[in-house]
Recover the amino acids of this structure.
């Protein structure tokens, strides 16, 4: 059985031109196994159990003991489970501990500071390092709830880096930013390196998720996950993050839109970032742009991975929805309302739906930041009809304008005056009788003051 990492490596090497025999020797597996995974006959990480696992009854006990004492010797723990009836050997027991990762990580015993850091050699075109940067206080007109995100990709050999702004760090936005940044960098390196972000791998184990394994296969790259507490393993992108935050984001103007801010970042990287001098063993000191010419990156697939991006927008008073630097029309009934824009990467159209998921309209996708207005003829006619129906020629009332009572008001006033001058006669059928003799009778016999 191949792990997801070996499966991704096999597909990447096969796309790079390796033969099945060479891949099998490189990964240490049989050629038939490699061929089955490349053809899609087998799924990585899925294995049929051979029989009943005798370790399962002792799993809770072992997990509880190692949770109480992470440094408990395996031999001591083995003696305890043997006393409870465990009938397998010590090597089988320790293999289960390693495979299930039952021994928890002890953070106080593994500090990150103070460790020596080695110089890591990065061959040209070998590695691209990726990381998210949280950028606080975006411009209010972006509507991004007080925080923006920037995915930064940096080529480890030359130091060239690019970034893409995103409203979220979920996997669809990550895939979109990966594709756009890769095209801006000029191509694909052989390896993509990430820290333990949950959209790429399981943070606890570092294993690639099945959804991101499909992304890696689509682009034909190998995925490398940094060990925990080893931030210096991707120091190139960490320095790029610091530069992006301090030299670009810190001075970004408030009046810029998202698309304008993205264009300003691209311009800054080309003018300032690529002009930086970096030491090199072969060329001494050279600019990032010169070193990037030796990367020899692979071409990017014609279409991005088909992830689906879903974002919420507020339609304008003209029943227009903004998306990636363009505006798309909706029916006039949704003006100033909340709608959802759904875009599948690689498709040439977008769907606009209600918050409940009902598709309202579909538009052909315009080029990003083109500034065009895509409108449906039916929406145009409906909007004009609604605007004309609400149109009026009456001017607003002036504060000092004289407006005397009209005929209707005067007629109502005359009715009120006539009612006030007519004497009131109690109706005979009301049943109300006023008799003063009753009050006199009630007053007799009452104590009075003398």
């Amino acid at each position: 059985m191949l792990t997801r990492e070996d499966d991704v490596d096999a597909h990447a090497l096969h796309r790079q031109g390796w033969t099945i025999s060479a891949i099998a020797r490189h990964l240490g597996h049989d050629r038939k196994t490699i061929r089955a995974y490349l053809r899609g006959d087998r799924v990585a990480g899925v294995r049929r159990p051979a029989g009943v696992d005798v370790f399962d009854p002792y799993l809770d006990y072992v997990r509880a003991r190692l949770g109480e004492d992470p440094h408990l010797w395996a031999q001591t723990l083995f003696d305890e489970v043997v006393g409870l009836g465990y009938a397998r050997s010590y090597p089988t027991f320790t293999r289960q501990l390693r495979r299930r990762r039952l021994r928890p990580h002890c953070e106080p015993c593994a500090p990150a500071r103070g460790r020596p850091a080695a110089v890591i050699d990065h061959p040209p075109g070998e590695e691209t390092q990726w990381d998210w940067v949280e950028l606080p206080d975006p411009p209010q007109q972006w509507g991004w709830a007080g925080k923006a995100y920037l995915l930064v990709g940096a080529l480890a050999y030359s130091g060239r880096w690019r970034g893409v702004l995103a409203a979220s760090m979920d996997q669809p936005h990550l895939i979109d930013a990966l594709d756009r940044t890769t095209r801006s960098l000029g191509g694909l390196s052989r390896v993509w390196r990430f820290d333990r972000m949950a959209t790429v791998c399981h943070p606890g184990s570092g294993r690639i998720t099945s959804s991101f394994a499909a992304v890696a296969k689509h682009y034909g790259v190998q995925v490398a996950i940094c060990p925990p507490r080893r931030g210096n393993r991707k120091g190139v992108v960490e320095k790029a993050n610091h530069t992006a935050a301090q030299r670009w984001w810190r001075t970004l103007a408030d009046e810029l839109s998202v698309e304008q801010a993205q264009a300003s970042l691209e311009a800054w990287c080309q003018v300032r970032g690529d002009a930086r001098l970096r030491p090199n063993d072969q060329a001494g000191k050279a600019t990032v742009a010169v070193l990037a010419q030796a990367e020899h990156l692979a071409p990017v697939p014609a279409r991005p991975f088909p992830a689906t991006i879903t974002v919420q927008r507020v339609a304008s008073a003209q029943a227009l929805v903004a998306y990636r630097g363009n505006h798309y029309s909706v029916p006039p009934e949704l003006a100033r309302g909340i709608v959802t824009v759904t875009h599948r990467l690689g498709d040439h159209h977008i769907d606009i739906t209600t918050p409940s998921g009902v598709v309202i309209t579909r538009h052909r996708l315009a080029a990003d930041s083109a500034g065009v207005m895509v409108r449906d003829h039916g929406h145009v006619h409906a909007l004009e009809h609604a605007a004309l129906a609400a149109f009026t020629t009456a001017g607003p009332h002036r504060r000092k304008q004289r407006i005397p009572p009209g005929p209707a008001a005067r007629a109502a006033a005359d009715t009120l005056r006539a009612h006030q001058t007519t004497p009131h006669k109690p109706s005979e059928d009301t049943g109300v009788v006023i008799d003063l003799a009753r009050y006199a009778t009630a007053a007799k016999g009452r104590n009075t003051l003398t």
Summary: DSSP finds 14 helices and 14 strands in the chain. The CA atoms of residues 196 and 206 lie 6 Å apart.
